[in-house]
Amino acid sequence: MKAVVWVGLVGLVACVPPQSYLGSETPAACTNSDPERCASALAERDLIDGDLDAYDDAGLRAYVQGIADRLALHAHLPHSPRVVISNHDGTYAPYANAIVVGRITIQKLGSEAELAAVVAHEMAHIEGHHATVSLFGPAADQAWLAGRRDAEGIADERAIALLEHAGYSPSAMRRALRAELEGDDDEHPPRVDRIARVSALASDRVAFEGREELLSHLDHMVVGRDTRQGIAIGSAWVVASLGLALDLGADDIARSDGDGLELRHGRSTLDAYTIGGPWARELASRLDRKETSTTSLGKLTLGMVRERKRPNDALDRLEDAVRSTLQQPLPGTWVVIVERCLAKAPCGALVLELEAHGERAHERWLGSLRTATVAELRAAQPARIVIATAARGDELHALVQKCPNPVLATTLDDPHRVVPSGESFKCTDR
Ligand SMILES: [Zn+2]
């Protein structure tokens, strides 16, 4: 979780002149002694401009913001937190002003009340200053972990009260936990305990559920990993978000790790991944022995990553900590940054980290980089949710058999949920 990395920095921001963060002026909160909102604002810019991690759907964002606003009316907060939809899994609250909800978290939920339960849990962490409290607690030892588990239990309990005040079914908390929790870790109480506890607290009290409301907002949402960030198609690695393809040689060993690609050819290795335009320009400014050229692929910058300068004031330290959560090469690494701006999309960049032998070894890799074909761009499109209507009442696993991908559709809901005739359920388009 990104939020964890910022531990130790809140409380350090004092009055300092405006600076810039990822190419835009540092938010006012960073200069008016509101460190929680400052960190939140930096985190949001980091998500949106730093590494292409925000999910670009204004309608969905406005919908989830509306749910947060409804819950916040009864929370002990001076204002409703800002909601950002990220393009990955997981949900967290980076300080006092933001709730980041992962798109992959949303796709597994079955009603607006369940989504409200996820948002309410994070809102309870903000109310309780849990991110801040952990800053001044002990280091990550057993006592710290016990504190984390307590905070999670408190957030579950408080979320039920927030749901109830806002008119949502409190029993949605149990279903949201069931849908989202896969295994156990040291920072949360065991899954079975959390579900049992919220079940006892909420019993079966029912209020607004909003199944159709949620589903109508999920129509055409990307499902699973966003393959536009990189996918193998034929003998090429295609990054549709940038319109680029990297041809893989017959004797190249390729391994994909999340959205990134690791390639090995003889004694040369390459790591490739995408980042946002503002972050790419900052990384490029930190290169030694730099060579820049403009090509048909975009602006190419080659150089070696310089040691980061030590932050010298409080704001520097906060920014440095937020920046350290962005994907980036280690000092001393040779990189090529290919910055590219497609029509109707924010500029982004492909970073190639090189561990190459020979003076001009990067040229071999660059020689296999080209623009993607129309067919490759089409094949790289991710699967999306399509809302279907049940022709008969049945359990979900039976209804999704008519979807193009029944296995994928089954992962999007409780397979044993009974969908009445005429009601909606989630299929996919491929
Ligand atoms: Zn939590």
How much beta, percentage-wise? 15-25%
Biggest beta-sheet profile: 7 strands, antiparallel
Provide the domain count. 3
Low-confidence stretches: 1-15
| Number of H- or I-type helical stretches | 16
Helix content: 25-40%
Query: What is the residue-mean pLDDT, rounded to a whole number?
Result: 86
Instruction: Trace the largest sheet across and list its strands.
Output: 9-10-11-15-14-13-12
Total count of strands: 20
The distinct bound ligands, ions and cofactors come out as:
zinc ion
> Radius of gyration in whole Å, from Cα?
23 Å
| Shape field | globular
Overview of this structure, please?
The protein has 430 residues and is α+β, with helices and mostly antiparallel strands. It folds into 3 domains: 56-218, no CATH class; 227-379, Jelly Rolls (Sandwich); 385-428. The protein has 16 helices and 20 strands. It has helices at 2-5, 35-50, 58-72, 103-107, 112-127, 130-136, 142-165, 172-180, 191-202, 211-218, 277-285, 314-323, 362-367, 374-379, 396-399, 406-410, and strands at residues 20-21, 24-25, 82-86, 91-92, 98-102, 231-233, 236-239, 244-247, 253-257, 260-265, 268-276, 287-295, 298-305, 334-340, 348-355, 369-371, 385-389, 394-395, 418-419, 424-428. The strands form 6 sheets. It has a 7-stranded antiparallel beta sheet with strand order 9-10-11-15-14-13-12. It is globular and about 70 Å long. Residues 121, 125, 152, 155 line the site of zinc ion (ZN).
